Request: fold
Amino acid sequence: MIEPVLEDIKQYVYENEHIEACGLLSLERGRIKWNPCENKAENPKNDFIIDPLDYKAVADKGDVVGVIHSHPGTTPEPSQLDRAACDRLGIPWYIFGENDKWIKLEPKESTYGLLGRPFVYGVYDCFTIVKDYYEDYDINIFPYSYEWEFWEKGKNLYLENFEKEGFIKVTDGTLQTNDLILMALNSEITNHAGIYVGRGKMLHHAPNRLSCRDNYNGIWKQITRMTVRHKSMT
Ligand SMILES: [Zn+2]
Reply:
């Protein structure tokens, strides 16, 4: 499928050889199209982020059928993150390495529900479980892009966006099922979130652990900074 635009992609990768070049493969009116995208990662030499708005712009015009990125100066061997993200998106990934070597990574059927997910930052983490949880209630949270340790880089993913996403701060001290609990985990910044699922339990996905329901008490209560409730659930 990539063949008609392969030379164009190689050229783009070559011109951006010092960073992870990235873009999307789309199908538009029966033709394959290569859509280079700006790499928005803070450290584009070792990482790539495609802006969700760029993704949307391509998806609005056609069907996204592939994600492309390069590994500058090394092999196209996929990282754990590459594999997990490919499975999650459910479309092939094409990775370009040095010397024009490239590989196609096919997505495996993703078998993870909300519990027991491995922690893969940006794919399976505290934000993605929150997003997936509320999707079941037809609340579609914007797929923000964020980087590992955003809280040490002057970003405040949760506090900056919860109102925009239709959540309201709970000020009367109540806690009800489906409330979103915002916490500061090993940080001054509110960098972690979980969902109160009733009976004293919180569903969340903390670093280096599988996603799970924890008793909402002790440490989790101590690090809670705020509880917010979606306006459709008040
Ligand atoms: Zn990669």
